[in-house]
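Late entry, written up from scratch paper. The run itself happened at the end of the previous shift, but nothing got recorded in the book at the time, so transcribing now.
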Amino acid sequence: MRRSILFLILLIFCSTFVAAFESGKYPYYKKIILPSSINEPAIIGLDLQILNNMKPDGSDLVVTENNDEIPIKVLINHVEEVAHKGKIISASSIRQEFRGANFDASKVLDGDYSNNDNAYYQIDSVKDPNYAWIILELNDKTLTDQAKIWSLNTEYTWTELQIEGSNDNFNWDMIKSKKKYEVSDVRTVTYPPVQYNFLKFSFWHTQSLVINEIEIYGAYAGKAIFFAKSGNEYKIYYGNKAGQPPIPYDTSQLSTKKTTPAVSLGIQENNKNYNFDSDNDGITKDNCPTISNSDQKESDNDGIGDLCDNCPGNANSDQKDTDNDGIGNICDNCAGTFNPDQYDDNSNGKGFACDDNDNDGVINSQDNCPSTSNSNQNDKDRNGIGDACEDFDKDDIPFSKDNCLNKPNPDQKDTDKDGIGDVCDNCLLGFNSDQYDRNQDKIGDVCEDEDNDNAPNYNDNCKGTFNDGQKDTDNDGLGDICDNCPIIKNPEQSDSDRNGIGDICDDSDNDGLINPRDNCPQVPNKGQEDQNNNAVGDACEDFDNDGVLNNEDNCLYDYNPKQNFGSLYIQSDTDKDGKGDACDKADSRFTENKKGLISIIVALTVVIVGFLAWRLNKMPVKK
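Output as recorded:
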């Protein structure tokens, strides 16, 4: 009872100082979003914007209730190297001792960063020819967000990395999915802040793997505790690194328990009342109030100085950063997923963390096998590596690259180059990636001998017909016995008229010449006349370009296209003499094709003249 009364007195006492709160000293604030019903201490998780702008110990943070300052308790986890407090508990393999030097996995935590013998960890490259892993146990369940890895031997180094976390060394969660990294002596890997007892590092490497040292850094993180009550408005002010808490608050009542509610924060807002020189650069209306920048350089004219701007190349006065990775949404290549490194392996404008390299509907940062499509994310052994990327047959070849998934074959021998390793191929010499075996005799169909001619299907030039000698006169891959043109190469076996004779051997116009040797294969022209020597027979030419081929044209050298005469579409030929009007003289059309009639007329004329002469000769002569 006394304690409650004391706390109440302290609150009343503190309230006498509320009026002294000077909001103008703080350049930024965020609204605190409460649940619908609350009347107890609550926890605020400090995000990256607050952490980057506050004093390292958080002593300048202020929480207000209805614009009045209230007591808060700030708890900060400072950045420190935590791996050296832990130990390596297992590794996929270790190189055997050599000339008295050992290469135990504990070497990565011994503080020796050199390349001297006995100073580094090396795997057994026979056991782990492509992939290796180590498991680190931290001193306790520690919040971490960064690893630094030394690998000074560029011949035996890693190219891809995956990080997982566990609290029991059995059930693993993905922290950072498999990702490619450029080769260098020292590489820094960042990931979202996580808390685990165990960290597993998986490395895909070249030839072998040497690691000189690993450092793990605890995340700089923090939280604030305050008493929250529904119906009131709460804000948290920050950014005044020169500020000091004006009131010696009693925070003993601000304790937490498992059920203590966590409240959320709104977006960062610029304090319009700000008029204090927090960074001592001589400017109060400062476009970067937490970092000294007397030049006030501001490339994108959004009111935020370049040194404070999370996207200095694009205007974004709200500095919205949804994933809290320090990169503003407007220029973040993965705005909804934490990726401060902005890594984009395929240069498609989308960060690796939220890309889906294998197009299986699961983004890389959440995919337990980002290199191979596996939308079901199956993980039988629950080791954090999807079955699609797992090495089920223990031959040190991952699933996505193994040409024989269920039988060990580290040499990956594939004689017929069909993508199926010899040890599990049902037809070693015949290409059959589908592995069809219709009669289920464990011999692939392409290795069967359907026509019993002692030639397996993959090597039979006439699979359905017995042809023991495999004779192929034209060497087109088809045995003579089933080749529709055995004397001329025609692997496509084209037969337009379906007469059983390949087009290349057919005589379409029945003029005694097969098509490839006929200069006019559709029109009979046994003589193969070709006046202009253009390799096209005259019968197939159209010398006068009137649309009528020579073999049908009634006027070979004079333009006379077909015309519509009643129901007929023909070339004009008035006297029906077979000679088109275009080349038939008008004055000859009456007689040139009427010789019989003329002969009759001539004969009749001769008869009549003769008869008249005879009569005159019989008539008496008058004296």
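The CA atoms of residues 225 and 496 lie 87 Å apart.
(Scratch paper discarded after transcription.)
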